[in-house]
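Hallway conversation turned thread

IA: we were arguing at lunch whether anyone had actually written out Enoyl-CoA hydratase end to end. Turns out nobody had. So, for the record, here is the sequence (278 residues) and right after it the structure tokens. Reply here if something looks off.
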Amino acid sequence: MSYTCFDVEIADGVAHVKMNRPEKRNAMIAAFWEELPRIVRDIDENSKARVIVLSSTGPVFSAGIDVGMFQDIGGAKDKNAPQYGASFYIDVKRLQASLSSLENCRIPVLTAIQGGCYGGGVDLITACDMRYGTADSFITIYEINVGMTADVGTFPRILNHMPEGIVRELAYTGRKMGAEECKSRGLFNEVYADHETMMSAVMDMAREIASKPPLAVYGCKRAITYSRDHSTADALDNIAIWNMSMLIPSEMMEAMMAGKQKRAGNFKDLPPVETKKA
């Protein structure tokens, strides 16, 4: 299947989803917001891969939301219309849900960032499980420079990685935070000299994760996200119930035998998600 904003390749249990509009600095046009969740759902619900790697092309990772989008969101051409606020709310919730597909899917999502990551691009990467950058990469919560408050996902998620005071500084000033500072603050897992080196390392990491028992990886992703958003007591109860319901002894035995015999494990993929037809 072909897409306007992405190329998708699947090999070795890894789906490589690549933004493919470098001539437009990978700005997030209307098609982006429709295609991303569709791609993620297709990979996840049909068990086509065990890990997703999200990357980009050209000198800029993403210029953020395309300015043309602002003319259409909430019927912005007619701001005096009484339904403007309600329409805006509906549209922003749709954009939020598009990025939340990365967090809500069953499999890990790794993202590789080169060059600038502006505005909506920061919303995008914070919805992923792990982030890697090139030495020349940077983020900027750019919305303040165009008179906006970032609203598609940055604030609720970036606060899980950085101190509140630093997030406020980035939000209030729109300053660029370089790769090394992103790593030191906890946003980036690692920084690499160039794009080629980064992609090689990230794909190796993705293949390593893909070699692990998929159900256990899914359990980890679910438990980590749940623990982030709930109390310790609730999180402990949740993971106990998860393992009570989902633990598969045969997968555990295979993992232990594979380790002992120094071979790749033979694990079952996650079951496809059946969707009811209307």
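OS: looked through it. The chain has ten helices and nine strands.
IA: good, adding that to the notes. The CA atoms of residues 38 and 182 lie 30 Å apart.
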